[in-house]
Design brief:
Elements (H helix, E strand, L loop, with lengths): L2 H17 L4 H18 L6 H14 L13 E5 L5 H16 L7 E5 L8 E3 L9 E4 L2 E4 L4 H9 L14 E5 L5 E3 L8 E4 L12 E4 L3 E2 L2 E5 L2 E3 L4 E2 L2 E2 H8 L9 H8 L10 H20 L3 E2 L1 H17 L8 H4 L23 E4 L5
Parallel strand pairs: 1-2, 14-15
Antiparallel strand pairs: 2-13, 3-6, 4-5, 6-7, 8-9, 10-13, 11-12, 11-16
Length: about 350
């Protein structure tokens, strides 16, 4: 019998059932049933409400997420019964439609069959919506972070368009079979054209970004059971786009162009041209999302929401763990309370975990 699995199952069932106001008899009965199932088959299956609450707990426990205040609003799609790549892709599209919601984004997760011996489902994409990156002789077009995955998609027959914002296909693999790719329907991906409330020249940059961050390459672990395909989403914090995706030198690297349009001195760092440029880029991102009616949160509001989360967890008798380096926003972190506070970076399960890269 797998002793570690039994112990992890006991810990999860106890905490999950207590939070859901189940009786001690119900806890004991469920643990007994799970133990027998593990003795017989080497594993066990979660009930629908266990997997639903376990996914919520995993969000609440994730040390890198500043948006945990809304953990109990997560909508769970239990899709463990699906067997084929086509069925999985259809479930992904259903998740995306629900979550996107015309711009009023709703947090959701779709959970596919768990990892078992001789059973494994993987989604190769880092996010369900991600832009292609092309390495050409004279430089890079698109997102440099996507170059390896883009090359893999092309090898599998995807036709590149060589644009700055080409949405990549979904790549799904079941067991040791070759992965299959599925083109993203145009209507599935909500995108926002980035413009500035004051600078008309900003339109000439022709920037845009997708409206919903669907993370698809992390594993969800609940009570010792690992779900290797469990894409989930919240909504963007503005700095994820304006201070990282569009700003990082290893990504779209837009700060030099913005500084040039603003007439800033880029020859010396003492001019703080990067700081001025990144502020205007973030203003443009927040303005564009809000004007288009797409959910987004600025980093100051997100920090205030995290403070409320900390207070609610204290009321519930739970300690808040966190990875400080990830919780502080990438712009003006010292203006938030998070910057001035230590957090224990301890792993509490259920949780979401990074997996070995497939590319």
């Amino acid at each position: 019998m797998k002793i570690d699995l039994v112990q992890e199952a006991k810990e999860f069932i106890t905490s999950c059932y207590q939070e859901l106001n189940k009786t001690q008899d119900e806890i004991n009965e469920r643990i007994h049933a799970i133990t027998k199932q593990i003795q017989t088959s080497g594993s066990y299956e979660h009930t629908p409400f266990e997997i639903d609450h376990g996914a919520k707990m995993a969000w609440r426990n994730n040390n890198r997420c500043i948006g945990r205040l809304f953990w109990d609003q997560l909508h769970t799609y239990d899709r463990r019964h699906l067997k084929t790549e086509d069925e999985i892709f259809e479930a992904i599209l259903e998740h995306m439609e629900y979550a996107t919601n015309g711009g009023r984004i709703r947090p959701a997760i779709t959970i596919f069959a768990p990892h078992r011996e001789h059973q494994e489902i993987r989604i190769w994409n880092h996010q369900l919506i991600r832009y292609a990156g092309y390495q050409l002789e004279d430089g890079v077009i698109g997102d440099p972070a996507s170059i390896p995955f883009t090359d893999q998609c092309i090898e599998l027959g995807w036709e590149p368009k060589y644009g700055k914002f080409d949405i990549l296909p979904i790549m799904i693999q079941i067991n040791n079979q070759p992965p299959k790719i599925f083109d993203m329907p145009e209507e599935a991906a909500l995108e926002v054209n980035i413009r500035h409330p004051e600078y008309e020249w900003f339109d000439d940059l022709q920037l845009k970004w997708h409206g919903v961050p669907f993370i698809s390459d992390m594993a969800l672990e609940i009570g010792g059971i690992r779900y290797m395909a469990a894409p989930f989403n919240g909504w963007y914090m503005g700095t994820e786009i304006g201070a990282r995706n569009l700003a990082d030198e290893g990504r779209y690297n837009m700060l030099p162009q913005i500084a040039s349009h603003m007439g800033l001195d880029t020859k010396s760092s003492i001019s703080l041209w990067k700081d001025k440029s990144i502020v205007e880029l973030n203003i443009a991102v927040l303005h564009s999302f809000r004007e288009d009616g797409v959910s987004i949160v600025d980093h100051h509001t997100a920090a205030q929401q995290f403070k409320k989360f900390e207070e609610k967890e204290a009321e519930s008798g739970r300690a808040v763990t966190g990875n400080w380096a990830w919780l502080i926003p990438p712009m003006s972190p010292a203006t938030t309370h998070i910057f001035h506070k230590p957090y224990k970076n301890e792993i509490v399960k259920p949780n979401y975990f990074y997996q070995s890269k497939l590319i």
